[in-house]
Write a structure and sequence with these properties.
The protein has helices spanning about 10-20, 20-30, 40-60, 70-90; strands at about 90-105, 105-120, 125. The protein is an alpha+beta fold. It has two domains: about 10-35, no CATH class; about 40-125, no CATH class. Strands 1-2-3 form a three-stranded antiparallel sheet. Helix 1 (about 10-20) crosses helix 2.
């Protein structure tokens, strides 16, 4: 059945919402029912890790002094980013936090690729960085 009401773009998060609960998807994405958004600790940590990893790949270093990372997640963010850097400092990074979009029939798919790099064998690798268990 073609969805004539949701015009997209389709994002990974909206597709995940639909797979978990089609009714929730309809309420949020089609009916636009206002909801108070609450940032969970894992979401807050993940957001900061992505920002700092992107900064590392763009500048070759992380400037911890000019950040307003909330105190309750600072230690986790520093630990995760430090570990990430120690395992990824030799990557031949082509792009970081790269937006993309494409169409499948009448549907537009949009998202962001966390990291695009060339591995030691010369192959291009797309990486989605996760900081939680999902």
């Amino acid at each position: 059945m073609v969805n004539n009401r949701f015009k997209g773009p389709y994002r990974q998060s909206s597709l995940k919402t639909y797979s978990e609960c089609p009714r929730k998807f309809r309420l949020l994405e089609i009916d636009r029912v206002p909801v108070e958004k609450e940032e969970s600790m894992p979401l807050l940590i993940g957001s900061w890790v992505h920002k700092m990893a992107n900064e590392f790949h763009a500048r070759g270093k992380v400037d911890w002094d000019n950040r307003d990372i909330p105190a309750e997640v600072l230690r986790d963010v520093v630990d995760l980013v430090s570990t990430y850097i120690s395992h990824n400092e030799d990557l031949e990074v082509m792009r970081s936090e790269e937006p993309f979009s494409f169409s499948i029939t009448n549907y537009e798919i949009k998202g962001t690729i966390d990291l695009i790099y060339r591995n030691k064998e010369g192959k291009i690798v797309l990486r989605d960085i996760k900081t939680d268990s999902t």
